[in-house]
Each structure stands twice: as structure tokens, then as C-alpha cells.
């Protein structure tokens, strides 16, 4: 199901063939019935994450460090979430806008220099997303865009790590073996296992140290994640150094590839669908003419561009950042799933790409890219489309960073389209995709042309 990198379509195929509940492994059941989403993932549900997530926990100071994303123990998850949920809130997004604006300007300046040349957007959008999340997290760009390369091979290491995760994560006995191996000094010396998170941990520790050395007084102007976390710690004194490193490094892992994938999806579908491109351009240009857009499009302003918002949702519907099923264990007492009694401990999951193609929810043309569906639907239909939209997960463990990505994409895309006309320039008709937890794309080759008056 996962080996060939086509997990999203493989799951769609098995459900088309066998129906809404399919046994896909010795103890694994995949579900395609949207009514089961609240049962499995809803707030208050007793279904917990499986050891698959442990494969994505980094090691810090010789011990695995469960993050808010990988934590399987609900009490520990609640503890971690408690100290940061306000920082991720919608009202706090204005504090992060400045970091997005800085990076968008660097991106646009770089594109001006590359006008008319072949540009690989798969790389550039990833560099952009990484620099934004570094900037938001600890006011430090990694310099991917300035250096036009994968600095310290950070992106390459995640890719290799996820190829391990993709396969090893399917075998629970290998997961505990792997964790023990990672703790063993001789195996560490052999350097056989990818140190995916190593660089993220190092920069998180360095940024912590730099913050302390430069002194809080000097940093009063800082509104980044780290500065806010340190401010909280000063008031409550309950956030340890380890927990801080945990939150910072997790932002980098959870918030970079996911946003890059969603940005690629948005721009790919815009460029490949001339009618959509025309409409979104018109919406941006008209808002511009009415002086409703600032020099750097603000978050508030982009929320008033309904076609842009619909295009964003539609892109994430057809191409969600996470292409794998979201695995959970049935609680000890067992559970009724699609009319079947599943025993406690059964690995049960729902996959966003499967639900997002459900014609009862998204319409007969669910396989096509059509942002209008989000604007034309009746209030009742729209409610269902939103309720079952799984790009950010669901319920108790839904994505906490969602506001950051929606703000970042909503500001960046109109800013880019204001300045450039973008055309598809690949010799191939489509991009290439590969799913290893994240559903990454490559081969997004374009050419940019400066628009008049920019
Ligand atoms: C478009 C961008 C993004 C997508 C598509 C995305 C997707 C997801 C998904 C599907 C989950 C649920 C995983 C599960 O149930 O197994 C999740 C959880 C999470 N995401 Fe995101 N994410 C995005 C951006 C971000 C950003 C920017 C951050 C942080 C800066 C972030 C941090 C997290 C964290 C911490 C969790 C775990 C939440 C919890 O368990 O309480 N994500 N994300």
C-alpha cells in the first residue's frame, strides 16, 4: 500500500473495490465512511495514536522526545499543548505576519532576477516555507532562498528519514527495535540511521541559547514563537528547556513540508487551470484597484478574497499535505465501526485523500479541481464539506499550526500573482508526486514574467 509512493491512490482503489471498511494488514483496518470520522478522531474519543507516530519522534540528549504531534499518551499531549495553544491562536497571527512579509519579499526579489528562466517551484516553494517557519519560530531564516540550496541538507535528511518511516512504520515490532537501536552508542557510531531531526534540534538549541545571551531586554520587539514562549515561561515558570526545544523543533518538522506541499498544490492547480487563473487574477487585480490590498497583502485583506480562499481549500482537498492514513488504536473495550465490532487494539485509520474524493460530500465532479464548489454549495452542503475536510486532521489531534499556514498561503499567493504571470514550462504535462507520510510533489517547472506596473 505504501511502498511505491502512491499510498493516497492505492487507498482510494481498495475502497472503490471493497467498500467503506477494508482490512489492509494483519491488525489494520482502513475506513472510508465519513460518519466514522467523529467516532475515531472526535474530541473526547478514546482512540489513541499508534506507534507509527513514534518513528517521527526525535532523539534529544539520548532520549526519544515525543512532540505534541507524536505524543500517544493523552495526558502528556495535553500538558505539551497547554503551554502553546494561545501562541497558535488566530488572534496571535498578526504577530507573525512580519516574518511572512520579509520572506515573501526575498522570494519576489529572487524571482525578478530569474525572470524568463526555467524555475523549479517545487524547490523554491519549499525553501520559502522553510525560511518562513524558521523566521516565525525563532526569528532566524535558514537562508535557503538567499543561498538557493538545501542548507545543511535539512530537506534531504527529512526526505530520507521519511522513506524509513514509510516502511518501518508499517511493522510495529520494527519500530521498538529501531528505537532501541537509536539509543545504542555503537549503532549511532555506525551512522546507519538518518539523523532527520538532528539539525532541527541543533538550531532550536542554538536559538534558545542566543535568546538568553542577547538578553530579553533587547528582544522586547520580538514577536516570534520563541520570544512568546519565553515570555510565558517568565510568567509561569513551567516550561523546561527540553519542552522548549521540543516545541521549536516540532514547528520546523510539522510546519515546513506541509505548507510547501499546499503552496505547490495551489500554484500548480492555478497555473494548470486557465479559467481559475483568470478568475483569481481578476479578484486580486480588482481588490488592488479598489486600494484594498496593502503593499504586502495582510492576513485580514486576504480573508476578504473569497475566490482565493476557495482555491486554497480546493487545492488542499485534492492534494492534502499528509497523504497517509491517520492511524489510531481502537480503545480497550472495542468499538463498532461501519457495522463491524472491532476489538480493542485494532489499528484503524481514515485517509484524507479517500474522504476528499467522496462524491456524496464534494459532488459528482469531486475528482476535478473546481474552487467554485466552495462558493456555490448550499449552507448545509458546505457544512458537510467543511466538517469532513481532513487536510488538517480532525478533532482532538487536529493541526494546531493550521492558522499559520492559512495566513502564510493567503498572504503569499496574491502577493506573487500581483507581480508575475506564471506559465507551465515543464516538458511533462504533470508534476510528479511521492507519498512518504507527506505527499510531496516535484517537477513543478515554470517561467515567470513581470506584470506591468509592478
Ligand atoms: C498546510 C499546512 C499543514 C498541514 C496540511 C498540516 C497537517 C496536519 C495534520 C493532518 C495533522 C494531524 C495528524 C494526525 O492526526 O495524525 C497535523 C497535526 C499537527 N500539526 Fe499540522 N499541518 C500544517 C501546518 C502546520 C504548521 C505550520 C505547524 C506548526 C508550526 C503544524 C503543527 C502541527 C502539530 C503540532 C500537530 C499535532 C497537533 C496535536 O496532536 O495536538 N502544522 N497537521
From TrEMBL:
A Pfam family of this chain: p450
Keyword set, alphabetical order: Heme, Iron, Metal-binding, Monooxygenase, Oxidoreductase
Cofactor: heme
Entry similarity comment: Belongs to the cytochrome P450 family.
Protein name: Cytochrome P450
Amino acid at each position: 500500500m505504501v511502498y511505491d509512493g502512491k499510498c493516497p491512490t492505492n487507498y482510494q482503489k481498495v475502497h472503490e473495490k471493497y467498500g467503506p471498511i477494508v482490512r489492509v494488514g494483519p491488525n489494520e483496518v482502513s475506513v472510508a465512511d465519513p460518519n466514522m470520522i467523529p467516532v475515531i478522531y472526535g474530541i473526547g474519543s478514546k482512540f489513541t495514536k499508534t506507534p507509527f507516530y513514534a518513528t517521527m519522534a526525535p532523539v534529544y540528549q539520548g532520549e526519544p522526545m515525543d512532540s505534541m504531534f507524536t505524543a500517544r499518551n493523552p495526558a502528556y499531549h495535553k500538558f505539551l499543548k497547554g503551554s502553546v495553544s494561545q501562541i497558535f491562536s488566530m488572534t496571535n497571527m498578526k504577530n507573525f505576519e512580519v516574518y511572512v512579509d520579509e520572506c515573501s519579499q526575498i522570494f519576489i526579489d529572487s524571482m525578478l532576477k530569474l525572470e524568463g528562466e526555467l524555475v523549479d517551484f517545487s524547490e523554491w516553494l519549499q525553501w520559502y516555507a522553510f525560511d518562513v517557519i524558521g523566521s516565525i519560530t525563532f526569528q532566524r531564516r535558514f537562508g535557503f532562498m538567499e543561498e538557493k540550496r538545501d542548507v545543511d541538507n535539512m530537506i534531504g535528511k527529512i526526505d530520507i528519514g521519511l522513506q524509513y518511516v514509510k516502511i518501518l512504520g508499517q511493522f510495529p515490532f520494527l519500530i521498538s527495535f529501531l528505537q532501541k537501536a537509536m539509543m545504542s552508542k555503537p549503532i549511532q557510531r555506525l551512522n546507519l540511521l538518518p539523523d532527520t531531526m538532528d539539525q532541527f534540534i541543533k538550531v532550536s538549541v542554538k536559538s534558545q541559547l542566543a535568546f538568553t545571551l542577547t538578553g530579553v531586554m533587547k528582544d522586547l520587539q520580538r514577536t516570534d514563537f520563541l520570544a512568546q514562549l519565553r515570555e510565558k515561561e517568565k510568567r509561569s515558570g513551567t516550561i523546561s528547556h527540553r519542552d522548549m526545544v521540543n516545541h521549536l523543533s516540532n514547528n520546523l518538522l510539522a510546519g515546513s513540508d506541509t505548507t510547501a506541499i499546499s503552496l505547490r498544490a495551489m500554484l500548480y492547480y492555478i497555473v494548470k487551470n486557465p479559467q481559475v487563473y483568470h478568475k483569481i487574477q481578476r479578484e486580486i487585480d480588482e481588490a488592488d484597484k479598489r486600494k484594498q490590498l496593502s503593499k504586502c497583502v495582510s492576513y485580514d485583506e486576504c480573508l476578504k478574497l473569497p475566490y482565493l480562499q476557495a482555491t486554497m481549500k480546493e487545492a488542499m482537498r485534492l492534494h492534502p499535505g499528509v497523504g497517509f492514513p491517520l492511524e489510531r488504536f481502537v480503545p480497550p473495550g472495542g468499538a463498532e465501526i461501519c457495522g463491524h465490532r472491532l476489538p480493542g487494539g485494532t489499528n484503524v485509520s481514515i485517509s484524507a485523500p479517500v474522504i476528499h474524493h467522496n462524491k456524496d460530500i464534494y459532488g459528482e465532479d469531486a475528482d476535478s479541481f473546481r474552487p467554485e464548489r466552495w462558493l456555490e454549495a448550499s449552507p448545509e452542503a458546505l457544512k458537510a464539506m467543511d466538517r469532513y475536510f481532513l487536510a488538517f486532521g480532525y478533532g482532538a489531534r487536529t493541526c494546531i499550526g493550521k492558522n499559520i499556514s492559512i495566513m502564510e498561503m493567503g498572504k503569499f499567493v496574491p502577493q506573487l500573482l500581483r507581480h508575475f504571470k506564471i506559465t507551465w514550462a515543464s516538458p511533462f504535462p504533470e508534476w510528479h508526486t511521492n507519498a512518504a507520510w507527506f505527499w510531496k510533489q516535484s517537477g513543478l517547472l515554470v517561467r515567470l514574467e513581470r506584470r506591468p506596473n509592478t
